[in-house]
Task: structure prediction
Amino acid sequence: MDRVEERKKALRSMFQAVIDPLGYKFSPDEEIVDFLLEREVALEDKHGIPYCPCQGIMGNREDDMKIVCPCIPFHRKHFDAMKRCWCGLYVHKDVTDPDSLRQIPESEIEQ
Amino acid sequence: MKNVELYALSTCPWCAKTKKYLSENNIEFESTDYDLADKEEQIKITEDMKSSGSNVAFPYLKIDEEVVVGWDPAKYRELLEIDG
Result:
């Protein structure tokens, strides 16, 4: 197994232990899970940390720690409202059709 | 014709879907990949995003004065007046 595949496998088992007690699972959409994990390995190679592939790195610890995958704890109200995380790597445990879940802007949730 | 500008990330699949949606619907748009931009451009982008009350989440699509954060083809269709 090549290094990237090995690292994706390691991230997957590491993340599983974190998201399970939060009530989340990996998306049933295996294609997007594989794509996102691959991006996270590349981000980890570049920045030393598996950041979320769909949120901006700001260059300061206070903001950037909130987008380290799995970033669910920092966005609990928002993600619970969507039943998924922003990039779609994780969904609520009862979700069977991830395509039906809309990406709702955080500002819409706060209102 | 509407002024359409996209802030995206080269690592984000939803950003790729948005670019594809706009191209397939023959919508002219400007696109900047935040993660590939220089620091100055990144600051400009984040300030613009925050000025609309958004966090730094992508895709971020500006259609004239409207802003759509996240992949939302129904909203794109409505604002861009695309049939179908």
Q: What stands out?
A: Chain B touches chain A through 23 residues (CB under 8 Å). The first helix of chain B runs from residue 13 to 24.
